[in-house]
Amino acid sequence: MARISPLFLVLLSLGFFFATYNLLTMTIQNRATGTLVVDESDRRLLSDPIIEMPENVRKPKNAKLPFHIALTATDAPYSKWQCRIMYYWYKKKKDLPGSEMGGFTRILHSGSPDNLMEEIPTFVVDPLPAGLDRGYIVLNRPWAFVQWLEKATIEEEYILMAEPDHIFIKPLPNLAHGDYPAAYPFFYIKPVQNEKIIRKFYPEEYGPVTNVDPIGNSPVIIKRELLEKIAPTWMNVSLRMKDDPETDKVFGWVLEMYAYAVASALHGVQHILQKDFMLQPPWDLETAKKFIIHYTYGCDYNLKGELTYGKIGEWRFDKRSFLRGPPPRNLSLPPPGVPESVVTLVKMVNEATANLPRWDIK
């Protein structure tokens, strides 16, 4: 049987998106304006005066709703060492009290197996056709999820979309509630301030721009059936945004995050904004009550323990210092005065690298 090319599938999906765009306009009911948040002390659902959480989506007190952890990755050394650390801490936290963490999949969008297949559960998918990502590798993420959701057997009803540079600090429960996925609110995702651009992809007939949540696709815990609906639209909106020069310039490296937020809104999906889902050193100072460390930012300090962000510090930890291979074992700890979040990050990296065999492989 002849093999269908990935380019044909992408173009077919694009055609489907435009064909169904008007249908979505007629069928999606406008959501009420407002934002769901969660109290960090006891995770009780709170809402603004306009939105109320339906009682029928509240999780029974003792019910367990496991979710599948899925992250997209490449076969580059930079991606591999982060995935190994992430998977190490997943295994450490998965079976502890309070966890609803289920299975794990690294969705490898390089098109062929690599040398981590036996260490980390991996599902290989195709990358976008050559040149379609225009050097923006993250465009492969929605396309990878589309393929994985279509082809893989996933036992869990829920999925956590994660990233290689996530470390589980403590066991993660299912923070979603029925058809309300849980997501982390990013301070730099600002749909309202970018309404002019958002309206190119989220027309006024869909409702207020506040329907577009200030989130990316990760971390998000979402029902599998919802993600199956959103993922093709997320892919197509990402490609359309990249094709639009103004959108590409303004959104830059977070373009794909905006695309997920818009795609979700097009399908009428609203997320619970879970502030204790994740922390991001060096800006977040403590790990208490948080579940995931996201080490996307460089951490630079002088020997007095003072942050020197934007200037290489006398002590530093920055994942981008290790693009071509893994960081060495036993990294030096930060000087006194550095926030606990940064100290915890380095200690967790050190523990993983000390226990992972063949750490120097690329």
TrEMBL record:
<dbReference type="Pfam" id="PF23452">
    <property type="entry name" value="HPAT"/>
</dbReference>
<dbReference type="InterPro" id="IPR056508">
    <property type="entry name" value="HPAT-like"/>
</dbReference>
<keyword id="KW-0328">Glycosyltransferase</keyword>
<protein>
    <recommendedName>
        <fullName>Hydroxyproline O-arabinosyltransferase-like domain-containing protein</fullName>
    </recommendedName>
</protein>
<keyword id="KW-1133">Transmembrane helix</keyword>
<dbReference type="GO" id="GO:0016757">
    <property type="term" value="F:glycosyltransferase activity"/>
</dbReference>
<feature type="domain" description="Hydroxyproline O-arabinosyltransferase-like">
    <location>
        <begin position="67"/>
        <end position="360"/>
    </location>
</feature>
<keyword id="KW-0812">Transmembrane</keyword>
<dbReference type="InterPro" id="IPR044845">
    <property type="entry name" value="HPAT/SRGT1-like"/>
</dbReference>
<dbReference type="GO" id="GO:0016020">
    <property type="term" value="C:membrane"/>
</dbReference>
<keyword id="KW-0808">Transferase</keyword>
<keyword id="KW-0472">Membrane</keyword>
